[in-house]
Each structure stands twice: as structure tokens, then as C-alpha cells.
Amino acid sequence: MISVPPGYVAQTTSTLAACLARVPHLAERLGGKPDAWHIEEVGDGNLNLVFKVYGPRGAMAVKQALPYVRLVGESWPLPLSRAHYEHTALSEQAKHTGRLTPEIYHYDDKLALIAMELLEPHIIMRHGMIAGIEYPRFAGDISTFMARTLFFTSDLALAADRKKAMIGAFSGNTALCKITEDLIFTDPYRIADLNRWTKPFLDAYAARWREDDDLKLAASRLKLKFMSSAEALLHGDLHTGSVMLTTQDTRVIDPEFAFMGPMGFDVGAMVANFLLNYFSQDGHEDQAGARNSYRAWILQTLVQIWNDFAEKFLALWRGHATGDAYPSSLFQGELGAIRLEAERRAYMSRLWTDTLGFAAAKMIRRILGLAHNIDLEKITNERVRATCEARALTLARDMMVNPGGYPDIAAVAAAARSMRAWTPEFS
Ligand SMILES: Nc1ncnc2c1ncn2[C@@H]1O[C@H](COP(=O)(O)OP(=O)(O)OP(=O)(O)O)[C@@H](O)[C@H]1O
Ligand SMILES: [Mg+2]
Questions:
Q1: Is the pLDDT of residue 216 over 90?
Q2: pLDDT per residue over 71-107, tens digit each?
């Protein structure tokens, strides 16, 4: 048995009402008596418990960390403190993005439990994209989320002491960072018990990826950047499974992997998940070409996500450079302003290169590592799935080892389009 701190009890649908009833403002929000509250467990997360609670007056979602990985059980312990980091990150993100995160109603550190706004009728974006739903607001909303959370927690906006305090505040989230370090940057490139891929079709790919020194060096370079570049507060798991939305409203959930890391990791996660979903569409259309216009929407949105992000980030830098980096007293006069603007552009270009690499790493891990995405997993015809996956793997490898071939996001979209025309040898 894993030991837990005094006072911690994992909740069930039978115990949660009494637990919430002890917090007057939550009981007030739900209304009526606790025995009138309807409680359901969601049960589609891998790591934690999530409940939906409905009362006569109001409703809420309740998320509780377990002392282990929910999907695996006690054989994979994971610290309860991830709820603290999730709560701290949600609070920080809310300061910068307003209604792009769920409102927090209550946090109980002892129970590692967060009560928050119930997002309904929102669905997980990944499910929406598998169903072929277009989200016209998404690129605008996610680019705002990324630009504002990353800019306002960086040295461009924060005084040095506050930035360092923030590094301190998140530095204990080491167990969650270690999951990323192992599962994203290491395991897919070596023999590891947890790895899996679509067999036998991708056996040769997995073997080649393990023997590819250029790729392993590029992945290791990215890993070092992930471990050592405390640029800004990252969400840490910013994929389409961490977005709940409707066509009118976008919310980012689940920042339990939050820590101070390289900005390109968050932006790259989004890019990777759009590309994976793009390649998966061949497995979701009922006849060839049926998803052509959806594919066009995916790539057009992908391009807009990066371009809007870059524009918004630059605008924040020009207008709100309150941090200790690039002191304005050093760049006075017209020439100073011109040089500083060129420097900002060079910074964005480096951030693009990071984004490209992290996106590639995230694509590869979803195909050769432990945790896969249902975008691809849902494709039951394994040959078709492996074909989609081989295209994604091949593009990702090239993005990682030949970043110069992708000067901008439009080049990535164009390469994805051409890659779809390529048929792997087993297909
Ligand atoms: N605020 C909310 N309102 C409605 N449903 C929610 C809310 N938060 C989470 N959910 C539901 O619960 C599921 C799991 O939530 P979440 O992703 O936060 O849990 P997790 O255990 O950290 O999962 P993951 O494996 O993605 O890390 C979501 O996929 C979503 O269906
Ligand atoms: Mg999670």
C-alpha cells in the first residue's frame, strides 16, 4: 500500500457529497441537500479521478489526484502534489487569460482536490476533431492563451526576483517532468518495456528510429533544453486532449505538468497534435476524400495558430516589456528601436525552431512510445493506421533533423500535404 498524508482519502461517487458538503460555499453553489446531488465519475483521464456533480442550483467538476497513476494502479506511484501544481498553474493562467481556463471554486491541499467550473456542453477537442468538427474560434483563442501565459511569466515581463520566485514555486514538480523526460525524449529511441507501436507494420520503423544517431542527438538536445531552459510557465501537456470546447467557447484544462520550461514545448505540443490528427483523417473518412475539406481546415488552422501566436507575442513584447530582460534604457532612439525589433524577430525565429523540434518529438512519442492518441488508436484497420503513422513519423523525423527545411509553419503544412501522397512500402 502506498502511504498517504493524514487526512487524505480517495473519493468515490458515494463519499464525495459529504466531502463537498463540509465546504459551505460549495454546498451553497450546488444548492439543496447533499443527498439530492447527483455525482458521476468521468473516468476518461489517465492519471486522476474526475467527477461531475449536479445539484438543484448549480454544478461543478471535481478533480482529485490519486497517489498513483489511475490507469495503471499502485505499481506506478505518482505524488499527490501534482494537484497543487495544477491549481497553482490554473490560478496563474487565469490571471493572464481570463475565461480561457475553468473557474476554480475551491482547492483542498490535503485531499489533493480541485473543485472547478463544470464545462458543459464542451467536449474534449480531440474527440471533436476525430468527428470532423470545425472550431472557428480555436486558433484565435489558443494563440491568445499561449502568447499571454508564456509572455507574462517570462523575463520579458517579470522582474528577475519574481521570475526566480516562480521557478522556485514550480521546481518541485519533478515527478511529472520526469515522465516527460523519459516518455517523450528517451524511451521512443531505445528498447523500453513500455514502448508499443502498430505491429508488425512499424517494426522496421521502430528499429530504424533506435539506430538513428542524428535523430537521437536531436532528441537529446531537445531534452536538455526541456530540462534546463526555464523560460516561462508551461502548461506542460498542451495537446488537444487538454482543451474542452464548443464552437463558441474554448477552455484549457489539466496543467498538472506545469513547470518553468522552454516556450516551444507548449507551442510544439499543439502543432504536433494538429499534425497527428491531420494524418489520422484517412482512417476516419467513410470514403476516400470525404474529409478533404476538414483536412484543409486542420492545416489552415495549424498555420493560423503559429502565425497568430507569433504576432500576439511580439505585440505583447512591444507594448508590455516590463521585465528585466532587454532594458529599454539600452535601446534609445530610432536606431535602438530598429535593432531591438530585429532582435525580437530573431528571438521568434529561435522559438520557431524549438517549436518545430518539440512538435516532432511529441509526434514520435505518440507512435513509438507508451501513450498513444485516440486520433490514431481509434483506426481499427491496422494497416491503414500504420500508414497514417508512418507518414507522421517520417515527417517528424525530418522536422527534427532538418529544421532548416521548415522556415515557417506554412512549410510544415505543405510538407504534411505532400507526405499524405506518399505510400509506405507495407501499405
Ligand atoms: N472542468 C471540467 N468540466 C467538465 N469535464 C471535465 C472538466 N475537467 C475534466 N473533465 C473531464 O474529465 C476528463 C479528465 O480530465 P483531465 O484531463 O483533467 O484528467 P487527467 O486524469 O489529468 O487526464 P490525462 O490523462 O489527460 O492527464 C476530461 O477528459 C474531461 O472529459
Ligand atoms: Mg492530466
A1: yes
A2: 889 999 999 999 999 999 999 999 999 899 999 999 9
Pocket test for ligand 1, best of 254, 256, 370, 373 (most atoms within 8 A of CB): 254
In a domain, 5, yes or no: no
Residue 241 Cβ inside 6 Å of ligand 1? The answer reads: yes
Mean pLDDT of the chain: 97
**293 and 273 in a common domain:** yes
Does 1 fall in a domain?
no
Q: Tell whether 4 is covered by a domain.
A: no
- Is the pLDDT at 288 greater than 80? The verdict is yes
Contact by Cβ (8 Å): 296, 303: no
| Ligand whose nearest atom lies closest to the CA of 52 | 1
- Using pLDDT thresholds of 50, 70 and 90, give the confidence band for residue 363: very high
Q: Which of 95, 116, 137 is the last residue of a domain?
A: 116
Of 116, 134, 149, which residue is a domain's last?
116
Helices and strands per DSSP (H, E), number in the chain: 15, 12
pLDDT of residue 1 exceeding 80: no
Instruction: Check if 26 has its Cβ closer than 6 Å to any atom of ligand 1.
Output: no
Q: Is the pLDDT of residue 203 over 80?
A: yes
Distance 98 CA to ligand 2 centre (A): 21
CA distance 250 to 261: 24
pTM of the model: 0.98
Three-state DSSP state, 280:
helix
Same domain flag for 91 and 138: no
What percentage of the chain carries pLDDT values higher than 70? 100
Give the residue numbers spanning the domain of 35. 16-116
Query: pLDDT, tens digit, for every residue of 148-184?
Result: 999 999 999 999 999 999 999 999 999 999 999 999 9
Instruction: Calculate how far, in angstroms, residue 270's C-alpha sits from the geometric centre of ligand 2.
Output: 15
Residues 87 and 203 both lie in one domain? no
DSSP, collapsed to helix, strand or coil, labels residue 185 as coil
Q: Is 115 a residue whose pLDDT tops 80?
A: yes
Are 291 and 369 in the same domain? yes
Answer for the pair 384, 201: CB distance below 8 angstroms, yes or no: no
Return the CATH number at 263: 3.90.1200.10
Number of domains in the chain: 2
Residue 205 domain flag: yes
Q: 108 and 127 in one domain?
A: no
Euclidean distance between CA atoms 357 and 271, whole angstroms: 10
Residue 351 burial by CB count (10 A; 0-12/13-18/19+): exposed, middle or buried? Answer: buried
Residues 112 and 144 in one domain: no
124 lines ligand 1 (CB under 6 A): yes
C-alpha cell recorded at residue 210: 533506435
